[in-house]
Amino acid sequence: xxxxxxxxxxxxxxxxxxxxxxxxxxxxxxxxxxxxxxxxxxxxxxxxxxxxxxxxxxxxxxxxxxxxxxxxxxxxxxxxxxxxxxxxxxxxxxxxxxxxxxxxxxxxxxxxxxxxxxxxxxxxxxxxxxxxxxxxxxxxxxxxxxxxxxxxxxxxxxxxxxxxxxxxxxxxxxxxxxxxxxxxxxxxxxxxxxxxxxxxxxxxxxxxxxxxxxxxxxxxxxxxxxxxxxxxxxxxxxxxxxxxxxxxxxxxxxxxxxxxxxxxxxxxxxxxxxxxxxxxxxxxxxxxxxxxxxxxxxxxxxxxxxxxxxxxxxxxxxxxxxxxxxxxxxxxxxxxxxxxxxxxxxxxxxxxxxxxxxxxxxxxxxxxxxxxxxxxxxxxxxxxxxxxxxxxxxxxxxxxxxxxxxxxxxxxxxxxxxxxxxxxx
Length: 425
Prior knowledge:
The protein has helices at about 10-15, 30-40, 50-55, 65-70, 75-80, 85-100, 120-140, 155-170, 190-200, 215-225, 240-250, 255-260, 275-280, 300-310, 315-325, 330-355, 365-375, 405; strands at about 15-25, 105-110, 145-150, 175-180, 205-210, 230, 255, 285. Strands 1-2-3-4-5-6-7-8 form an 8-stranded parallel beta sheet. The protein is about 45% helix and about 10% strand. The chain is globular. One of its GO terms (biological process) is hypoxanthine salvage.
């Protein structure tokens, strides 16, 4: 029997990745918060003057009572994010941290409304974040976009102002609008004017829904808000009809497993609906949510899912493709970058197969589950899966250019696409 490829942390670090759901104010470095607090004269809670004390003060990586308890950490981070310098640094360091672990495209979200305590205007805030992201692109080649957030528990008029800001910065670094914050007693329908303005100006829309509240929150996000993606969607499994609608219309779910456990949206990592969503065919991708507060990275999220759900190479490839396909990049650029990511991924698999003297299981999880079901009905349980041919994949030769080159292209594509180019779906 052939030896099966072991998915290692090194493999996951090197594979191309995306992070489409990551909050700027929840993803700072502990050392940066301490330095900015000292420089700005900000007093941190509980005498948090060391990284260890600060981590404890913000419940870093700890299971919280609920989402509201989890969100208290943001009072700390926001206290030092009220200057252009701080915003620039936070954005640059977040993009740098992502780039150093193989993330090729990131969409960072935040609400400018929460960074105005010292008089910064909305445009200045967006430009400061944008400059930090551009500097990271210059140094590391990482592609990024900003998502402006309205907030559920703040007035709908405030969300409308932020939607206007989002429209003004369309094509200037901002790629979408979001509604974040606690769902309980703060329905998305109250912010419908902001959603209408965004959609009417052909701007992408993602909405936090189904995290701490039931599937009716997702229903509102889609049918009243008109969301193109759903943030979390953990409780979608409670409504089969809506689940099928989301699946049929290929509405992506931004899955954040570790965060969902920390906020008690899920009882445990093992009970998370990700493997069910993946096997059912939903377009799901992995994200960090808050790298600092949740104490995670994209590599950590992938590795945890591999260990908890026994994901194989085919599953990783599918999740990776879903991330690139669900992004708010323009279609032609997205198509090229996805093809390049597939080529890099497949070459990496071949490298690790040779290194380990093993064979990767490339069939998607749904194929594995069908085989298991057949095996359970077979007298001897001996059902062999057909080996994955790789014919639907993209080779390095097929890709127009690699990710490093793609990240430096400002428009959709300056090269003609190849007629025979294929991307697995």
